[in-house]
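Project standup — Tuesday

K.O.: blocked on the structure for the chain from last sprint. Re-posting the sequence here as requested.
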Amino acid sequence: MGPEFHRTVKYLPDIGEPLLFEGVSYTRKSLLEYCTEEASNSLVPAWKREVFDFIALFMNPAGGAIDQLSSGSTGDPKSFLLSREAMLLSAQITLRFFKLQRGERVLLSLPVHYIAGKMMVVRALLGGLDLVLTEPSSRPMQKLSGSIDFAAMVPLQIEESFNHGDPLDRISKLLIGGGELHPATREKLSLMTTPAVYESFGMTETYTHFALKRINGSEPDSDFKLLEGVHIRLDPRACLEVEVPGITDGLLATNDLVEINEQGDGFSWLGRIDNLINSGGVKIIPELLEEQVRDSIGHECLVLPEPDRKLGNRLVLVVEYEGNDPPLELWKDLLRNRLSAYEQPKRVLTVEALPRNNSMKPDRTSSRSLLL
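H.V.: unblocked you, prediction finished:
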């Protein structure tokens, strides 16, 4: 990681004035004073005090280090210190990519104890953007008025916004990260003309995203495209290594299996090496297989390993299906025509809903209890 910013200064020199916060203009000094005061105000909701506390901490480096729990993408989650300089650099890259202009409204709908929430605040401070706060929830647009120029959300928030008809089209540019999009949700987003929707790829250790993929519009991206200055390569496991100058300390190893495009400026994500299934000596990437199954049968699914004396592990297909009479034989026929012999599931189960975490990402660990 970049070195921690230890200099004792009254304010961060990269941040200009005026600063906008919920429609009000501040000097750096007055915003620091306001946030310091509100952070200790017991009448202010806890989630909002957390925002005030982070702004006060970030704008006053003498206040101490910024501690963050890593994502676990590069191993077990661990605590490390965030560099203010690296946060500003990451924010600048995002501001340039999305062409965000001073005074535009940006929505903070994620908790600031996550790096994604912290970085939205830093982008607003650095870019002179009007930071709009809403209590972190599954429906961030529910009570908001007016338009939003830029917002970042997790898949659960997108799902719930669609389910309740919340006005996502009032957002100009929407960044989605922190989990996998449900195929049906991805399809809905792909058909929207507003907002411009981008899927992000990143981790805490890279100070959020280092690659983006446009998933709607007249020319959607087929791969994740690297942001400026980012370098990638494959390690001997065929996993991604990434370097973001000024942010990572050299190449950062991940457990993400990827395929780098011919130009070297992007990649397609294949899956996680943690989820790799060895069946009869053949290594199977379940995420890739699941994509083929979804395309064939039209339902969300998971491919899970089940102990087998002969194969070591055999493949079990768990399909999300509402109904009492799933067309199992039809599915098997479709898969026989699409998949190779070693990719064929040995067993097929159906459930009304796959277990998911708060980001709507299928929970593979919890799902294994379905096999018992």
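K.O.: great, moving the ticket to review. Residues 276-371 form a domain with the GMP Synthetase; Chain A, domain 3 fold (CATH 3.30.300.30). Confidence is low (pLDDT under 50) at residues 1-9.
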